[in-house]
Design a protein that fits this description.
Organism: Neobacillus novalis
Largest sheet: none
Structural class: mainly alpha
Radius of gyration: 22 Å
InterPro entries: QueT
Order of helices and strands: HHHHHHH
Keywords: Membrane, Transmembrane, Transmembrane helix
Strand content: under 5%
Number of strands: 0
Protein name: QueT transporter family protein
Length: 191
């Protein structure tokens, strides 16, 4: 009886199953799916935490605890997708100023996250990156102050001060929290 084997044509000198086009394509597909899943989880966590503190996330003093997830960007820039999706969906579902928040709120997050990504190229150390990230998010709250000024006529400078202080508090408290969680789960390796 003759023994038959199923073989796939390999390039000359290639080892079967190692370095093949199929293996590389499968690896890339797995990485994309993994990235989408992780981004979805980050977005879901952002939405869930925002829902818990909903009344405090959309006022002149915004203690949106979910903003601490912005620190994920210092561990890996790929977290930007999940964070932005979380902000977008939170503002879509919960904001009393839907259109304003979808423009200004999401815009502020995107701008601050991109600045943090650029700064991370020049800053070494997680703590230093988190400090800069906190300051960037605090400063860019002028966009939220502008939004609230346009929507409600609230005084711009005072609203910038109150939203910036609340953002600073949340981000500063979030630094040791995210650092401690990272020690356990290693954010930089998840995405």
């Amino acid at each position: 009886m003759e023994k038959t084997t199923n073989t796939v044509a390999q390039p000359i000198g290639a080892k079967p199953g190692i370095g093949s086009v199929e293996t590389a394509a499968a690896g890339k597909a797995h990485n994309k799916v993994h990235g989408v899943v992780v981004g979805g989880i980050v977005a879901a966590l952002y939405i869930a935490v925002s829902a818990l503190i909903q009344p405090f996330g959309f006022t002149q003093v915004q203690f949106r605890v979910s903003e601490m997830f912005n620190h994920l960007i210092v561990f890996n820039k790929k977290y930007i997708y999940g964070i932005v999706l979380g902000v977008f969906l939170t503002n879509l579902f919960f904001s009393p100023l839907k259109a304003y928040d979808l423009i200004f709120g999401v815009g502020q997050s995107v701008i601050a996250l991109l600045i943090a990504i650029i700064c991370a190229r020049f800053i070494k150390g997680i703590w230093a990156r988190m400090v800069v990230n906190t300051l960037v998010f605090t400063f860019t709250m002028f966009l939220i102050a502008l939004e609230l000024h346009l929507a409600f006529g609230w005084p711009f400078m005072f609203t910038w001060l109150t939203t910036a202080v609340s953002e600073f508090v949340v981000m500063a408290v979030g630094m040791p929290v995210m650092y401690a969680i990272n020690k356990r789960v290693h954010f930089e390796k998840i995405v």
